[in-house]
Each structure stands twice: as structure tokens, then as C-alpha cells.
Amino acid sequence: MPRFGMVIDTLKCVGCMDCVVACQTENDVPQGFCRDWIVTETRGEFPNLSLEIRSERCNHCDNPPCVTCCPTGASHVEEFGRTVQVTANACIGCKACISACPYGARFVHPKGYTDKCTFCLHRVKEGKDPACVSVCPTHCMVFGDLDDPKSAVSQLLNSRKHRTLLPEAGTKPRVFYLS
Amino acid sequence: MLEFTTTRHNPLVDPVLSVWSWEIPVYLFLGGMIAGMMVLGGLNMLRILKGERPEGFFSVQTPVLGFVMLNLGMGALFLDLAHKLYVYRVYMAFEPTSPMSWGSWVLILVFPVLILSALIRLPEAWPWLGDRVPALRGWSEAILARPGLVKALAWLNVLLGIGLGIYTGILLSTMVARPLWNSAILGPLFLVSGLSAAAAMVHLVSSLVPGHPAPRSFLGGALAMLVQPLGATPPEPKTAVSLVRADLAFLAIELVLIGLLFIGLASSSASHVAAIDLLTSGKYATVFWWGVIVAGILVPLVLQALELGHRIPHTVIPALLVLAGGFALRWVMVGAGQASHMIAATGM
Questions:
Q1: Residue B59 is assigned to a structural domain of this protein
Q2: Which of B14, B88, B223, B309 is 20 to 30 A removed from A43 (C-alpha atoms)?
């Protein structure tokens, strides 16, 4: 069984937000909400500045606090791809998962349940890439099986310097950033 | 310089997490107080078994009042849910890693225990109901005639009360993403604060209309049932003194636990150290220091110590302050906890 993850090359990302719009369109995300978003981080003092642009989303953690805190099992780890998913009609809207997520990846859908990135599992099951990955004009995002040493994501992680967001939270995120 | 620009959590749009509003502090306060009342009431039921007179308010008012307030608390909790029609899903699963799941099941067990405990004296406390539903008297007598059942009820009150009082703090403390909550002290702190609020509440209601026969009217009886000690004589002075003494201990322990909370945060990661700022500056600091610490703990601590020493007369003022402080603690912790977040230890 695969264990899906994503690798994002921050040296290629230009922050065009194509991934954000593609996700909103593909997943019918209500207006005013987003399942992925762009962060621009600037460090240093002028003129010695460094800039990183990255696309962020649910990290589909190996140790997801949103799943362990859910009282109904609505937030769960899907067997296929070990991704973190939400069953809308099992969610009571208690918002514990939103509080528990260190990445701010979740929001309350106007219909009342908690919503977030699904890694476009419906597309992945058809052999396609997630919508965000498929539209990226700079090809900065790569999606695949982290447990397959021959996959593009595994090879990138083997050959490039990378990090995850807030590793100190102990959530073992599966979205990796190359720099 | 470190600057973030983002299309999520934009400081100008949603600077901090704000998913829980007034409903959650209200539930946490009421739930904690009911939990404390169950513990104190359960211990008092054990005293009845040892032959003490059962007319004391502990034996009836705590379960009846607790039952009514639990419904209010659960109502607040329900109002907070964003997907209300699916609330039944909580009881179609048990998730062992979720304190909220544990709490939901504890709440379901608390209801029958409170109802059974209340039945012991309900027909006498609310004569209007007792006259119309004679079976109630039968049940009351049936429970009282079985010391084993009363003992079991007493211990269920104590154990479920501890569970109900501690789970809310554990629920918040499991959230690694919120450093202010992320402390094992929070469970015991909420439990002790609930016990303190319970002692104050029972003291307060027992002082309102002591020593009158229960009104025979529907509404008068229903209201009096919640606040009036049973019997023609007021509760024994030693009951009030024991409540004040217990509350003194609870307040002192609460103060120590808050101190330990600070020490724990100060000696932990950068995110936890930063979380202290939420209680020492900003909009929660005033309520925390003046509302929770000074008015909610220190002043009632001093006043009740003076009362016990017969230096000042007994009043309901310390009880009122303790209740206000107990709510303020939940309000501050829920609000400031949501504002606390992890700080990235490593940059890009």
C-alpha cells in the first residue's frame, strides 16, 4: 500500500497561486476558503535579504493530532495512501481538529463539517496527480509514494536538501520542502 | 527581520485561531463545577450511610442542581457544534485516543447517576411532584432501603465527578499545536478549580433560603428544590464550616497548580515560553491577574480564612468571587490558548 507525500521545490515556486485556484476549482471549495495557500517568508536585513515562497496545505502527517483528537472517527487515516481524510457525515463540527493542527490546515466548511486538503484522492485513484500539482507552471510540486524508492518524490528527497514545517511538533509531516 | 506574507492566517484577517467562543468556557465552567458537586455530594452520601441525618443539602440539592446545570452546559456545548444534526455520531463511536470521546461517554453515564442520586430526596424536595407521582416516593424509599445501592451511587458520583472534572483539561492539554494548553497540569487544575467552584456553589445556595419547609406550589417547589436545604432547620453550621475549609484547601492547591503551570511553560520549548506572554501582557492578562488570581483566589482565600478564625462573619461574598474566578479561568484559558501557537525553531 502506498504512502503518499508531496515534495515542493521552493527554488522553483514563484507564488503564482495557480495551485490555490486549481484546488478551489477542482474541489468546489466555497468562496473565501482555501485548502492550500501561499506563504512568502522574508528573512534578514536590507540589502542582505533572503526570500522563500512556498505552497502550503495539510501535511497528511504520519502522526496526525487531528485524527487522534477526533471524537467520532470522522478525521481518519485512509488506508489507500495513508492520507488524512474527513468523513463529512461523521463530523459533528466540534473543531477540536482545527485546534489540534499546528499548520492551520483545516477550516469549517459553510455546511458545518471540517474541510481540508485531500491530496485530491479522487484524482489520484484515477492515476492522476492532485489538481495543484497538475497545474503548477514551474513544476515545483511532485506527488508520489514515499515508500517506493523509485518514485520521483523518494529520489528528490534522497538527492536534495529538504525540510518539513514545524518538525518539533512531532507530527511527522509528509509535505517536504526543497531548498 | 522575519516577515511572512500569506494568503492564510493573514494577520489583518485572522491573526489567531478563533474557533471556540463563549460556549466552550461556559461548558467548561459548568461541567467542572458539576463534577466538583458530584465528588462532594458523593462523599456526603457516604456520610449518610454512616448514620448522619440525610436532610443536609448535599444529599439532594447537588444532584438536582447538577442535573439542571449539566443540561445548560450541554446546551452551550451543542450550540458550539458547527454540524449539529450529526451530534449523534459521538455516540456511534468510542475513540480511545480522543479525550472528547471519553468525555462524551462520561457525560452519558453522569446523567443516570445524577437522576438516581436526585431521586433519593426528590419527592420531599419538590412536594408538588412527589404528590402527583407517588411512584417517586417508592423509588426514593427503595434506593434508601438498599445501603449497597447508595454506596455504589456515592462512589459513582465521586469517580465520574473526577472523570468529568479532569477530562476537559486533558482534552486541551493534548493539543501540541497550542503551547499554552500543552501542559499536564491543566487537567488537575481544572479539576481542583471545579471542586472549589462546587464548594462555593453549594455554600451559596445553602445560604439563600435556609430552614423553610419546601413550597407546595409547582414553580415555587421547582425553584426551591434547586437551592433550598431540606428540613425545617437550616443545615448544621459545621456543614458550612466544612465547605469553607474545603474551599480554602482547593484554592490553595489551585494557586500552587497555576504556579506549576508557569514553571512548566517557562522551562519548556521556545513556543511554550512565548505562550507565557499571553497571560502576562495583552487582553487576557488583566482578567487573568485581577479576575482569576486576585478576585477569584487570593481575596476569597483571605476572607474565608478570616471567617474560619471568627474574625469576620460568614457571607456569600467569597463564594461569589470563587464562582466568578472559576469562570474567568476557563474564559482566559480558552481564549489565550487559541491565541497561542507554535514558533518555528528552524527557518528556511
A1: yes
A2: B14
